[in-house]
Backbone:
C-alpha cells in the first residue's frame, strides 16, 4: 500500500515537471498572450471554435482561431488557465456556460455579459461580474429635473419632450442651440435712443405680435439637430419685419438654409454662427424664401454644411437678383429679399416691449442652461434644481431667439404657442 502511494506520488511529480517544462519550452506563445478575458468576454456571441470546425482534444498549440487582435484556443488544455480559450469554447466544446459570463437582471429578464440596453442617454452593459455598468452622461431630459421644477415654485412648468429624450446634455448644447456670444461688433453698436418716458408710458400686460399683425408673423421653424439658431432667429425676425414694413405686400418666410449654406464666411453652418454675420449677409446679399430654398436638416454629421445652392448679383441701387433657380422642382419664385441694417436696443425691458409693439418682433441672444430644454410654460428662469449634481449636469450654451410679445402668468394665453421648436417663440418676462 505504501509502495503504491509512493509510486503515485512519483508519477504526479513527473507529470507536474513535464507540464512545467512544456509550458516553458512550447507554450511561451500562449504565456505571452495577455489573459484575454480579464474584463469579461469581449465578443460573447461570436463563433470561433465553431467557425474553426471543432475543438481539439488534449493539448494542441495549433488549435487556434484569430480573436480580435490576437488568437484564442479551442483545445481542452486552454481550460486550465481559462484565459486563452475562445469565447465559444465552453458553449461549443464543453456545452457549458463560460466561467466569465455574468448574468444581469432587468425587469425580471436575464441578460448575459456584453448585452446592453439604453437608459435615457446612457448605454448600460452587463459586466462580467453580473452588474450593469452604465455610462454616466447628463441627459437633456432628466426625470428628477422635471419633478424638481414642477414641485418648486419657480414660476414655470417643465415637461418631457420625446425628441430630446435619449440625447445627452452635451448633444443638446452642441446641436440644438448655435449662436456665438455677442461679438465685439455687436457690443460696439450704439444702443438706440428711445424717446420714451418710462413712468408715463403704459405697456399692456399682454401683447402678442401675432394678434397685432395677423398673417405677417411667421410660425417658428424647427431647427432639428442643426445648431444654427443664428440663421433661424435672424431669418425669422427679418421675415416678420419685411412683412410688417411692406404692410403685407410681401410676406416672405426667409430661408435659414440659404444663410446656413451660403453665409459661410466666419460662420459654422449647423455648428453655430454669429448673428451680426447673418444680418450682414441678409442686407448685402439677400436670401430667398423657405419655400424656394427649404431647410434640410443634416443627415450624417450634424455639423456638415450642404453646398450653397443660391447666389445673387447686383442689379443696381443696392438691389439684387438671384442667378440660380430654386433648389427644388416645385417652386420658381427665386426673388431675393434684403433687409435694412440691424440696430441695437438698450436692455431696458420697457424699451424692448415698446419696440416690439411699434415695429414688430426683435431678436435676442440668451444663455441657455440645462433646465431650459424641459421648459413647457410660464416665465422661464434658470433654477437651482441641478445645483447639487456633479458639474457636468450644470452646463450652458448660447442661443438666439425671436421675441414676439409678452404675457402675464396665465397659461391659457401662452399654452399653444410654447412649442419646443427652436427658435422658441419667447415672450418677455415681466419687469421686476
Ligand atoms: C474546465 O474548467 C472548469 C472550471 O475550471 C471545470 O469545472 C471543468 O471540469 C473543466 N472541464 C474540462 C473538460 O476539463
Ligand atoms: C419621456 O418620453 C420618452 C419617450 O417619449 C419616454 O420613453 C420617457 O420615459 C419619458 N421620460 C420621462 C421622465 O417622463
Residues:
Amino acid at each position: 500500500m505504501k509502495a503504491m502511494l509512493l509510486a503515485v506520488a512519483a508519477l504526479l511529480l513527473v507529470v507536474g515537471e513535464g507540464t512545467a517544462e512544456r509550458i516553458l519550452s512550447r507554450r511561451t506563445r500562449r504565456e505571452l498572450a495577455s489573459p484575454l478575458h480579464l474584463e469579461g468576454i469581449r465578443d460573447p456571441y461570436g463563433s470561433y471554435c465553431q467557425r474553426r470546425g471543432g475543438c481539439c482534444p488534449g493539448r494542441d498549440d495549433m488549435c487556434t482561431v484569430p480573436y480580435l487582435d490576437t488568437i484564442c484556443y479551442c483545445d481542452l488544455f486552454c481550460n486550465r488557465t481559462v484565459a486563452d480559450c475562445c469565447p465559444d469554447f465552453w458553449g461549443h466544446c464543453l456545452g457549458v456556460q463560460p466561467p466569465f459570463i455574468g448574468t444581469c437582471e432587468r425587469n425580471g429578464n436575464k441578460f448575459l455579459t456584453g448585452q446592453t440596453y439604453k437608459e435615457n442617454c446612457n448605454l448600460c452593459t452587463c459586466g462580467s461580474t453580473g452588474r450593469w455598468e452604465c455610462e454616466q452622461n447628463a441627459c437633456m431630459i432628466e426625470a428628477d429635473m422635471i419633478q424638481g421644477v414642477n414641485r418648486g415654485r419657480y414660476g414655470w412648468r417643465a415637461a418631457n419632450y420625446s425628441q430630446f429624450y435619449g440625447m445627452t446634455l452635451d448633444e443638446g448644447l452642441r446641436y440644438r442651440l448655435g449662436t456665438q456670444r455677442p461679438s465685439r461688433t455687436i457690443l460696439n453698436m450704439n444702443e438706440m435712443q428711445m424717446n420714451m418716458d418710462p413712468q408715463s408710458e403704459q405697456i399692456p400686460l399682454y401683447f402678442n405680435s401675432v394678434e397685432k399683425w395677423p398673417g405677417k408673423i411667421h410660425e417658428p421653424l424647427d431647427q432639428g439637430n442643426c445648431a444654427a439658431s443664428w440663421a433661424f432667429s435672424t431669418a425669422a425676425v427679418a421675415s416678420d419685419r419685411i412683412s410688417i414694413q411692406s404692410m403685407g405686400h410681401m410676406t416672405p418666410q426667409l430661408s435659414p438654409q440659404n444663410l446656413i449654406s451660403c453665409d459661410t464666411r466666419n460662420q459654422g453652418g449647423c455648428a453655430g454662427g454669429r448673428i451680426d454675420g447673418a444680418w450682414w449677409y441678409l442686407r448685402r446679399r439677400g436670401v430667398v424664401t423657405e419655400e424656394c430654398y427649404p431647410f434640410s436638416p443634416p443627415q450624417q454629421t450634424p455639423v456638415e454644411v450642404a453646398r450653397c445652392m443660391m447666389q445673387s448679383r447686383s442689379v443696381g441701387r443696392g438691389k439684387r437678383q438671384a442667378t440660380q433657380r430654386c433648389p427644388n422642382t416645385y417652386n420658381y419664385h427665386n426673388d431675393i429679399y434684403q433687409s435694412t441694417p440691424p440696430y441695437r436696443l438698450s436692455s431696458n425691458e420697457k424699451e424692448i416691449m415698446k419696440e416690439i409693439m411699434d415695429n414688430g418682433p426683435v431678436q435676442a441672444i440668451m444663455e441657455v442652461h440645462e433646465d431650459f430644454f424641459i421648459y413647457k410654460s410660464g416665465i422661464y428662469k434658470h433654477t437651482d434644481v441641478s445645483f447639487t449634481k456633479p458639474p457636468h449636469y450644470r452646463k450652458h450654451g448660447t442661443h438666439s431667439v425671436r421675441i414676439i410679445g409678452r404675457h402675464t402668468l396665465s397659461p391659457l394665453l401662452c399654452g399653444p404657442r410654447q412649442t419646443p421648436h427652436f427658435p422658441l417663440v419667447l415672450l418677455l418676462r415681466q419687469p421686476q
